Amino acid sequence: MCKIPATMLLIAVSVFSCVSAPAPEPADAVSTTGVQPAPALATPGAKTAPAQPAAVSTAAQADTELDLLIGKARDSIDANHLAEGIKFYISALAKATKAGKRSRVDEISGTLAAIGTRLTVEPHESWLSPDGSQKTASSRSAARGEGLMPAVYLYESYGYVKSAVPDAFIRFEFITNEGSLNASVTTDAKGLANTSITAMTAPGKDAVVRAYPVFTAEGYSYAFKNVFRDFSFAAPPNLAVVAVLERTPAGESTNPRVLDAVASALKPLGVEVVPFNGVLASARFNAAFGGDVTALAALAGSVQAGYFALVSVEVAAPTRMEYGGKVYNIFIANAKATLRIVRADGTVVFAKPKDGIRGQGGTVQAAIDDCLVKVRDELTATMSAESATIRKAFSE
């Protein structure tokens, strides 16, 4: 592949920041905002005239060492060993900084900046959609160490021609949200480096991980922070579908009385609510209640739900009250109800069963109706008492 002549590398471009590499940086390492001030060179004078030849000799020696390093850097780049060449430039930049040679520092910094304009960080194929756009991953999946993980290729590009850059460090860091990951990874022969996220501080919030190249030599590092690739991890939609399956001796209700009460109780807890208003098949509900992802998606339909608040209510056949051997014209109905909040991926974040809920009335239907009112009141009270827990479940 053709290379740009070394002289062209000295074109002035915007300066890239320099940061510490994976290893701790020495006290005199290149700083994050530029080179650190170096001691001024000795000024010849009458009293120091005898030392002047040594000072001149030292300065000349420093220039010779710099020329040697820069020559090696150019030779490496001409041989298509870009990472090696950059490392020689970093060594030269460190020596020039320590020697206080400002003009040489500016010269080498300009060369590195020019090299940076040829570097590109591109996403791995797994992050590309069919139309070529970059995908967005799930923050919740990433927090569990699952799903798409940041992976990039580092290339040196010349127009339509590019070549992989091996043996370079890629630094990965959170710029939105926080978490744990493998922060520094070396590119392989194909220029590929990937990291793994092991934890995320707030899985219920969006996150962005940035990847950029860092080159290290002799304890000094140079980061091309203007050459980066961001990976976005989206939190689940802050919207919950509420569905209730209400069974009584007469069968499954097509208009559950508990539905509106549960939806109203959820609204103050940091989530948007969409009550299910279709025909609720018991088989689909039971599968969704058990965390089946396909059943949950079918329940949501076109709604982009991140959560499901599912309530199962069962009212047993009422019985007439008997006391002291005497049967009264009062009917007693018993019910049990379970509230379960499930994520779209099927994981349960909250569950609360309530049993022994009792209602009564002068007729069978009156007893059932009263029992359902009691179920509604019990669920509302439970959600109020557990509001902090439920709110936290929606945010994690």
Given the helix and strand composition, which structural class is it?
A: alpha+beta
Largest sheet: number of strands, sense, barrel closure: 7 strands, mixed
Dominant shape? rod-shaped
What's the total count of β strands?
Answer: 19
Poorly predicted sequence stretches spanning 5 or more consecutive residues: 1-49
Number of distinct helices: 9
Q: What is the share of helical residues?
A: 25-40%
* Integer average pLDDT: 84
Order of helices and strands: HHHEEHEEEEEEEEEEEEHEHHEEEEHH
Distance between the termini: 50 Å
Q: Measured on Cα atoms, how large is the radius of gyration?
A: 34 Å
Give the strand content: 25-35%
Attribute tags:
396 residues, alpha+beta, six-stranded mixed beta sheet, rod-shaped, disordered N terminus
Structure, described:
There is one protein chain. The model is unreliable at 1-49 (pLDDT under 50). The chain has helices spanning 52-78, 82-99, 102-116, 139-143, 259-266, 282-289, 293-300, 364-385, 387-395; strands at residues 119-123, 137-138, 151-158, 161-164, 169-176, 179-181, 184-186, 192-194, 197-200, 207-217, 220-223, 229-234, 239-248, 251-252, 272-275, 307-315, 319-323, 326-343, 348-361. Helix content is 30%, strand content 31%. The chain has 9 helices and 19 strands. The strands form 4 sheets. Strands 13, 14, 15, 16, 17, 18 and 19 form a 7-stranded mixed β-sheet that branches. Strands 2, 5, 7, 10, 11 and 12 form a 6-stranded mixed β-sheet that branches. The protein has 396 residues and is of the alpha+beta class.
